[in-house]
Amino acid sequence: MSTTEPLETMVEPWDDFAASPSLLRSLPAAAPIVPKNSIAGRALTAVVAIMTFLGSLTIGAAMLVVNAASNWQSDVGREVTIQVRPAPGRNVEADVRNAVEIARAAAGIADVRAYTKEESQRLVEPWLGAGLALDDLPIPRLIVVKLGAGARPDFASLRQALAARVPTASIDDHRRWIDSMRTMAGTAAAAGVAVLALVLVATVLSVTFATRGTIETNRPIVEVLHYVGATDNFVAGQFQRHFLLLGFKGGAIGGGAAILLFGFVEAANGWLVGTPAGDEIAGLFGNFSIGISGYLAIVLQIFFMALVTAFASRHTVNRTLATID
After folding, report:
1. Which site from 17, 47, 214, 215 is most exposed, i.e. has the minimal number of CB atoms within 10 Å?
2. 202 Cβ partners below 8 Å, 6+ apart?
3. Has residue 297 got a pLDDT over 50?
4. Which of 109, 89, 87 is nearest to 100 (CA)?
5. Which domain does 206 fall in, by range?
6. What percent of the chain has pLDDT over 90?
7. Same domain for 145 and 246?
8. What does the pLDDT look like over 70-81, one tens digit per residue?
C-alpha cells in the first residue's frame, strides 16, 4: 500500500468536517471551550458580586432618602406655622387668641393649636440651655395650623387678616423647607444614578479584561475552531454563555447579600420601635424600609448585571475574532 493512501484517508474526512460546521456541534465535546472553574472566572464572579452589592446599596440608600424626603414634604406641607412676637404695649396672650380665631375662621383649616408659654420656652432650651429664667426674653409664641386633606387655603387673605388684627404675627408656610427637601431628593437620585453608571463602567471593563485573558489563554483552541469552519457566532456564543452564568452567579451573591442586609436593618429598626434610638431613626427615615419596589429593583439589577456581563464578553470576543485571519 502506498504512503499516500493513509494521507488521503485522513484529509478527506477533515475536509468534510471543515466544510460542515454543523458536524462540530453534533460531536460530543470532551471539555467546554471556556473552562468553567478557573482563577479568572472566580475573580470575575467576585468582582461582579462586589459591584452588584455596591449598586444595590446605592439603590437602597437613594430610595431611603427619596422616601424620607417625600414623607417630610407630606408632613410639612400639611401644616403652616403662625408666629406671634411679643411687642411693647401689646398683650401677647390676646394676640395669640386673635390669631387662633382668624386661623380657625379661614377656609381649608382642619385644626389650630397654640403653644403655651412654657411649651414655647422649651423649644429654645436646646440652644439656650435648660434651667434658665426665660420670662424676660421676647420668645415668640407659635401656633400650628393643620390643613385639611387636599385643601389649599388662601394664605394671602389669611396674611391680610392677621396683619389687620395682629400686626406682630407672621405666617410660615414652610415653602423654603419643601424646596430644600425637593432639591435634596433630586440630588440623592442624581448621585445614585452617577454611582450606578460608575459601577456599570467598572463591570464592563472587568468583563472585557477577563474575556481577553480567557481568549488569550485558549487562543490555540479558538484559532483551530476558526480555521476548521466554526462561525464567529458559535465561538462568541460559547463565551457569552459562560460569562452569562458567571455574571448571574456574581449578581445573585452581591444582590442577595444586599437584600439580607436591608432585611436585617429593617428588622432591627422594628426591634427599636418605642426606644429613643428608634424614634430618632423614624424621624429621619420613617420606617427605614426600601419597600417592595426597592427589593424588586435589586432583583432586576441582578439580571441586568448578568446581561451586561454576557454582552460585554460577546462584544470583546467578536472584536478579537475579527483580528484572526
Report:
1. 17
2. 47, 51
3. yes
4. 109
5. 29-73+179-321
6. 6
7. no
8. 777 766 667 788
